[in-house]
């Protein structure tokens, strides 16, 4: 296969996925998303202080860029437990807009424990690749990612 076309990898027995070097391209932001850019009115009292919401927050070794946290949402948008492009855009958009922590939706630890047949899962090693891909993107934006474990 030609190098400009990318490489072929198998994620599971049913699908073949093509990888292109352009897929890993990330845009460097001039200012980190979620950064406090200053007050609208600099003459206001305490205008030089960064609001608590935009200050870094640390829990043990975990440092969040700010205190904006996106709670998990049940999106019911996966097939066979796999995260998809929908999840990449949904969760990634919060990171691009500067949330300090994004928690992925209720993720089933086994198929029979799902809330719905469209729930995300981690009962198979095959699920890891897409979750890692989305987590890598979120981390590249300066945000952190968590996951809500679920068993209904």
TrEMBL record:
UniProt keyword annotations, A-Z: Flavoprotein, FMN, NADP, Oxidoreductase
Residue span, NADH:flavin oxidoreductase/NADH oxidase N-terminal domain: 53-152
TM region(s), chain numbering: none
SUPFAM superfamilies: FMN-linked oxidoreductases
Name the UniProt record assigns to this protein: NADH:flavin oxidoreductase/NADH oxidase N-terminal domain-containing protein
Cofactor(s) listed: FMN
Keyword Mitochondrion on entry: no
Annotated GO MF terms: FMN binding; NADP binding; NADPH dehydrogenase activity
Annotated source species: Lunasporangiospora selenospora
